[in-house]
Amino acid sequence: MNERIIILEVQKPLVKSMRKALVIGIAVVVLVVAGYGALSWDGKEASGSPQDSHAKFVKMELDKSTYSPSDTMIIRLINEGETKATTSYHFRLYREENGEWEEVPVNLMFIEIAVSIEPGKSWEQKVNLADLKLSPGHYKIVKKVILTSQGTENAASYEVSAEFEVKG
């Protein structure tokens, strides 16, 4: 009978220390997850219009606001942020129809090369509008940009756009 009491007294501190270790382990996991979330989230949402909060990071400019169907458009992406931006030659095109943006099929082959734009730098892409066979109207060109924080693997994808007219 004395042996049972000793065994129970030995197991009681063991159970208490296991509970304590479990509570500490859970607390560590919660703190690590919360800390990672705080480091990886910079307070900016990854969704929304490309013309709002992320427009200050990468801006798209066109060389003109009005083109003829045979012109060559020059798209310039300017990295005004503090992180590296990556894009490609691919773009989407939209035409305004009755106040709504309707996607225009772009029957072009794109070279899928990642283009890196360092902070404070810009990159230009030429687009031959004759290849797109555009009719007169109001258009919007959209490109995807990925922002990568230096020293981390965190990346956020955004879209930037610019509007233009085709006349003639």
Automatic annotation (TrEMBL):
Superkingdom field? Archaea
Query: Cross-referenced Pfam families, in alphabetical order?
Result: Big_14 (PF20251)
Chain ranges of the Bacterial Ig-like domain: 56-165
**What are the record keywords, sorted?**
Membrane, Transmembrane, Transmembrane helix
Q: Which residues cross the membrane?
A: 21-41
Q: Which InterPro entries match?
A: Big_14
Could you tell me what this protein is called? Bacterial Ig-like domain-containing protein
Q: Which organism is it from?
A: Thermococcus kodakarensis (strain ATCC BAA-918 / JCM 12380 / KOD1)
